[in-house]
Write a structure and sequence with these properties.
Length: about 100
């Protein structure tokens, strides 16, 4: 549960947990929980993509047990994000 006085209040945080259920990485995304957002895992590339109405699409690659932010997203990943957002909210994600 978040405390409204916490600087991370309302911020989407990603937690990477291994199969052993040990948390190995936490990322503060900058996306707000007060906006519409979707999360997709692309197992082929081992990439997690967050799309939020306020920050757009952010991709994270799993590397050495950490989530590392990607500089650029492939067209295939952007298509998956748009597809997920459409299923969730009934419209295309702006800017994807």
């Amino acid at each position: 549960m978040s405390d409204e006085c916490d600087p991370d209040y309302g911020i989407v945080r990603l937690h990477l947990v291994e199969k052993t259920e040990i948390e190995v990485s936490i990322n503060r995304s900058g996306a707000s929980t007060f906006q519409k957002w979707s999360l997709v895992w692309t197992p082929q590339e081992e990439v997690v993509v967050l799309y939020s109405s306020d920050v757009g699409a952010i991709g994270y690659k799993v590397a050495n047990g950490q989530l590392v932010e990607l500089i650029e997203l492939t067209l295939d990943i952007r298509y998956r994000v748009d597809e997920l957002y459409f299923v969730e909210y009934g419209k295309n994600a702006p800017g994807t």
